[in-house]
Amino acid sequence: MDKIGKDYSERPQLAHKWDERVINHGWVGVPNLLLEHQGRLQISSSELNVLLALMKFWQSNDHPAHPSIKNISKMLGKTEKTIQNNIRSLANRNNKPEGLEHILPQDWKGFISVQRRKSPENNANLTNLYHFKPLAEVLLALDEDQNEVKEEMKRKKPRIRLKSS
C-alpha cells in the first residue's frame, strides 16, 4: 500500500517547485478552495494545521487516516489535549459557518467524521479513523456556489457601449 504523496503523475510538476529530495518524503494535495475559503469556513489556523496533518495519513476514501493523537502532537509540537480539541471542533460544529447555511447539507455536523475503534481481543482503544467526505462535500458545494455567483455576475454585468462619432 503506497502512502499518500506517492502519486508519481504529479512528481514532474512538483520537482519543478521542490527539490526531488524534498518530495521523496511525500507530499499532501490540498484543494485551493480549502485555503481560499478557510476564513469563510471558520476554520482556525490551529484546526487547519491539524486537518493538514490528518491529510498526510489519508490514503483514499477506502483507507481513511488513522494516526495516533500522540503522533500528530509530536508532528505539530502541540499538546495531545490541543490536538484532541481541534479534532473535536473539526468533527462537531454546533453551528454551520455563517453565510454557508444554504449550501451545507441539512445533517451537516463538521468537516471530518471520526470513527472510534476498539480492539476485538481486549476492547482496548485503537487509533480513530478520520474520514474527509464531509469536507469534500462542503468544498464541492462551495464550488457550485462560486459558479452560481459567477454566472449571476455575468448576467448583471453592465455592458460598456462606445459612442459612435
Summarize the helices and strands and which ones pair or pack.
Layout: H1 11-17, H2 20-23, H3 32-36, H4 45-56, H5 69-76, H6 80-91, E1 113-118, E2 125-131, H7 133-156
Helix pairs in contact: 4-6, 5-6
Tell me the name of the CATH class of the domain at 32-146.
Mainly Alpha
Order of helices and strands: HHHHHHEEH
| Helical run tally | 7
Proportion of beta-strand residues:
5-15%
CATH topology description of the domain at 32-146 = Arc Repressor Mutant, subunit A
Share in helix: 40-55%
Mean pLDDT: 86
Major sheet details: 2 strands, antiparallel
Q: Can you identify the CATH superfamily of the domain at 32-146?
A: Winged helix-like DNA-binding domain superfamily/Winged helix DNA-binding domain
| Uncertain residue segments | 1-5
End-to-end distance: 71 Å
Rounded to an integer in angstroms, the radius of gyration calculated over CA atoms is: 20 Å
> What is the total tally of β strands?
2
Main sheet: strand order = 1-2
Structure description:
The protein is mainly alpha-helical. It has a domain at 32-146: Arc Repressor Mutant, subunit A (Orthogonal Bundle). It is built from 7 helices and 2 strands. It has a two-stranded antiparallel sheet with strand order 1-2. Residues 1-5 have low confidence and may be disordered.
